[in-house]
Amino acid sequence: MFALPDHHVVTLRGRDAVAFAQAQFMSDVAALAAGHWHWSGWLTPKGRVVALFALLKNAAETVHLVLQDRDPAEFAAQLRRFVFRSKLEIETGAGLHVGGRFDAHPAAIDALVASDGDGIAFDLGGAGGARTLFVTQNEDAGEDAAAVARWAMFDLAHGLPRLSEPQSGQWTPQQLSLERLQAYSVKKGCYPGQEIVARTHFLGQAKRGLALFECEGLVAAGQQVMDAERPLGTIASTAGDGTRHLALAVLPLEARTDAASVDGLGLRPIPLLDGLAR
């Protein structure tokens, strides 16, 4: 197992933990069986994604969020502003660490987690291969920068954006094509941003979505994607291992991308991989 230092655990614990998560997050937490997980996120009132995470209903009164690329203390502080009279505690860390392996776990299958001596195992594999994420109290996972970079590239290749801080609050779930990951609900009822998400879905107003590119060199989130002299869209997420660079861009759904570039660097469109939805 190698450490994933850009992943952190936030735990909601208490009688109202599930009800609070159901009211705040964009997935249908109430419909999730105990011992199972799915993708979820927290939105602004205007329907923009603040953070994406894997959400595990670990027990009747415990929900774990595995955050990517966000400060857990800041995220928890923002979330606590909405607790009011709900009976729950929002914890960060609690001695929990996140690690990964590029192989399959025999008992963690699809949305079902497994608990063993290594901690809680999540199946995060897809069409690009098998991998397992662990939430564990073990601090001994080794540092492996190459494996961490490979992990992030796997995420992007399967359409899971890795949102840096400046990209937080910029995009709607539809613009990030999060329906591919079954990460949001349009039927469960109210949550912050739900009206925007539902209106876009039911009126068919989604005009932009994710496109995956292999880049000739390093590009950065927030840079403009150009088609010759014409702005085409924006880079939302990037990852690379020093020899290969990937980028997810938010573009018009029908955009031609065969001549796309960023700052003069060519972008080669490649298909998104399936299999990461839960």
TrEMBL record:
Classification lineage: Bacteria, Pseudomonadati, Pseudomonadota, Gammaproteobacteria, Lysobacterales
Classification via PANTHER family: TRANSFERASE CAF17, MITOCHONDRIAL-RELATED
Name this polypeptide is given: YgfZ/GcvT domain-containing protein
